[in-house]
């Protein structure tokens, strides 16, 4: 974070090392000089309106492209905070400046990666989904929606717990919470209701996704062949669907 303070005459009275490094000059050559002198005529002209508004008592916030003489184009976020004296008059303002170039590039790369992931997931032959930190679905692929018999938007917004067999809900909830808390890959196995009403044993594998603002698991599931061969379990599921005494 680059921090500076300018008085009502737009003269630098304080600046930290970040400001000095940004301008490529020692702090001693900045302090006591005007913003126009330090920034240069062109950069000052772009920011003059915001500077004058801050000295009128209006807090300013903006993001802009800055043509740095040695670093090239940089994305910069700036905030000008008025300093009001005891008499109620503005006596200066603080400048809080942050170079967001690398962050913006990382965000763009993350969005591109997410787009590729979702495109690939939609063509995967297995059920796939991404869970938010609040345990709602952030994304579901086509196979997931087909299993539930609805659109992807409907499947994403649906209460996924309602599709778990009543005898498996508590266990799967406990195991999934423990798995997510471990921040390790974990496996679950249980019965889920398909669109045609059939209960199917599914085995899911979930892995945490780390990165900017991302710590929720991505999961995939396929039919559990070992479970499907256990006829007593399937018979029980069939009896449960028919109801008692049927």
TrEMBL record:
Residues 113-174 form the PAS domain. The keyword Kinase applies. The keyword Kinase applies. The lineage of its organism: Bacteria, Pseudomonadati, Pseudomonadota, Alphaproteobacteria, Sphingomonadales. PROSITE patterns: PAS. Pfam families: PAS_3, PAS_4. Keywords: Kinase, Phosphoprotein, Transferase. Residues 213-223 have a biased composition (Low complexity). Its EC number is 2.7.13.3. This is histidine kinase. GO terms for molecular function: protein histidine kinase activity. It catalyses: ATP + protein L-histidine = ADP + protein N-phospho-L-histidine. SUPFAM superfamilies: PYP-like sensor domain (PAS domain). Residues 208-246 are annotated as: Disordered. It comes from the Bacteria. Coiled coil: none annotated.
